[in-house]
Amino acid sequence: MKVRRDQDEEIKGKIAAALRAAVDKSPENAEGVAAKLKISTATLYKYMNGDLIPGGQILWRACGHLPIVLDKDGLHPPRRGRSPKALKDEAQYVLPFLNESVDGEKVNCHVRRKDNQYVQVNLRIKLAG
């Protein structure tokens, strides 16, 4: 059994609060959000209550379907008033989820750790035509 640390509980709480806020702001109900995230409604409620920590694929989908952003500051609602230029000037984003995969109809992405300094990213995008 995995031993949970205090930091894990803090992260779990922040993710739960961010997901709750994003689902509340979403035009869809919890069932619709769960369907878009490809999880059950019960699992969504476990994430929103802080009973479970969602994996990288779920967070990836959440950022695509909900008003929520995952960046170096954590999971939070999008900030207003920031220009695209301001985003380009920030430090490069660090991938917190290594050895993750995302599969869809148009995108297939695999991220793997190669060593302490490098990750390997394989990205396949299906183009129209």
Characterization of this structure:
By secondary structure, the chain is of the alpha+beta class. It folds into two domains: 79 residues, 434 Repressor (Amino-terminal Domain) (Orthogonal Bundle), CATH 1.10.260; 32 residues, no CATH class. Helix content is 40%, strand content 19%. The strands form two sheets. The chain has a three-stranded antiparallel sheet. Helix 2 crosses helix 3. It is globular, with a radius of gyration of 16 Å. The protein starts with 5 loop residues before the first helix and ends with a strand.
In whole angstroms, how far apart are the ends?
49 Å
Cα-atom Rg, whole angstroms? 16 Å
CATH class of the largest domain: Mainly Alpha
Give me the secondary-structure category.
alpha+beta
Mean pLDDT: 77
- Main-sheet strand order equals 3-4-5
